[in-house]
Amino acid sequence: RIMEQKLATAENEVLEELVKLVQSLGLRGENGGWKQFLDLHDNNSQSPNESSKLVAFLTTFKKKEDLQVVHSHANFLVIEKLKQESPDKDTPEQSLVRLTVEHPVYSLDYSFKPYSEEWFVSDVGMKTSNVMKSTEMVAVDCEMVLCEDGIEGLVRVGVVDRDLKVILDKFVKPDKPVVDYRTEITGITAEDIENAT
């Protein structure tokens, strides 16, 4: 139901891109793919790109992994649109977001596909205008250690709001043995995460 409401208020361009994405990935909703959906819903009377038809098709996806793909790509499209818009009227918050997503390593280090079952994909919002009006911000800091398999593991996550009020400060025990706590950088020792979960 929430997904349906978000899609209903999405910009047509976003809806069209989402339909193209699910087609290219071969995803099928309850009524099959896009072409099967159109066959079932007499596409002669209305344009196949009409928003209501696109929304109706996209709401036929019920599997969690399919919904994650749709949410993730919708968020990506909002960020891409933000990058293309003129920064002349940006608020300080929007400037910060713009500088972050335009940084050369952003897409390499901070853009990943959360399609696995353990991931939760939040909605940025499917209307760029909604995103651009928001001044709510949080800062997230993750302290990482080196695990024995050569991959970094999370050991502490902190979140503060725009007024530096601590929202979250939690130690996390990596699921693999740690070989380097990077204490000189993180300040974290083995004792800090002894009782962490």
TrEMBL record:
Keyword field contains Nuclease: yes
Claim: Hydrolase is one of the keywords in the record: yes
InterPro entries per the UniProt record, alphabetical: REXO1/3/4-like, RNaseH-like_sf, RNaseH_sf
Gene Ontology terms, MF aspect: exonuclease activity; nucleic acid binding
GO cellular component: nucleus
Record keywords: Hydrolase, Nuclease
Protein name (database record): Small RNA degrading nuclease 1
Organism: Noccaea caerulescens (Alpine penny-cress)
